[in-house]
Amino acid sequence: ALPRDLEGRRVVVSAGGTREPLDPVRYLGNRSSGKQGYALARTAVQRGAEVTLVAAATVSLPDVAGASLVRVGTAEELREVMHRTAADADIVVMAAAVADFRPTDRATYKIKKTDRDPDPIALTRNPDILAELVQSRVNGQVIVGFAAETGDSAGDVLEHARAKLKRKGADLLVVNAVGEGKAFETEDNSGWLLSADGSERAVALSSKSHMASDIWDAIVALIEA
Ligand code: PMT
């Protein structure tokens, strides 16, 4: 049986990948399936937490029993819901893959194919939701970020991730080495857990539920410290 060590804790988990529309039928997106975020939400419910799952483009995943679900599309929508729900959460976990940029213009009608060369797509920077949540953190709240990194070696990946943890100011950063067939859309995940206090731990390749349990163990350890 799982420990009930999240009993009475209010948890918000974001999952999936945002979609940034170009026109009514097309978008810029990413390969996040939402599986890792859903596994985190499911495990938190099982460990006794009151869970809100904020899901971006995860239509094919079955709902998490016992969690309240809020669906979002764009990074702007995710931002609005995260700020609202984080305001009275004890723990916030940003597992969603958020688009860093969105098309500057959203066409009202489907963009037509013409004989001339297409116009380039102008992009506008999206806000960094995780960094904002850290800025508006309420007392004692634990904030967990993820990092999807590509690199030639574990050393490269960790170096980028340590800098990201500092820059964003989260309490814990879950680092996934991504790339061909890794982390996105798969059943298994692996990586490292980096804490703001400098402690680091590798998580061997295992199911996303197993990874979720390890992440919650690390969060509970932070709360108890
Ligand atoms: O969904 P799956 O298919 O199961 O795959 C899981 C996963 C690989 C997507 C997941 O484990 C993961 O790594 N998610 C974060 C991916 C990501 O967007 O990483 P990043 O390095 O771009 O962002 C770093 C952190 O900042 C993340 O917590 C992200 O949610 C947050 N962020 C990023 C950009 C932005 N504008 N706002 C943010 O809050």
Key terms for this structure?
225 residues, Rossmann fold, alpha/beta, binds ligand PMT
Description:
There is one protein chain. This protein is of the alpha/beta class. The protein has a single domain, classed as CoaB-like (Rossmann fold, 3-Layer(aba) Sandwich). It contains five helices and twelve strands. It has helices spanning about 35-45, 75-85, 130-135, 155-170, 210-225; strands at about 10-15, 20, 25-30, 50-55, 70, 90-95, 100-105, 125, 140-150, 170-175, 190-195, 200-205. It has an eight-stranded mixed beta sheet, with helices on both faces. Helix 1 (about 35-45) crosses helix 5 (about 210-225). The longest helix has 17 residues, at about 210-225. The protein is globular. The mean pLDDT is about 95. It binds ligand PMT.
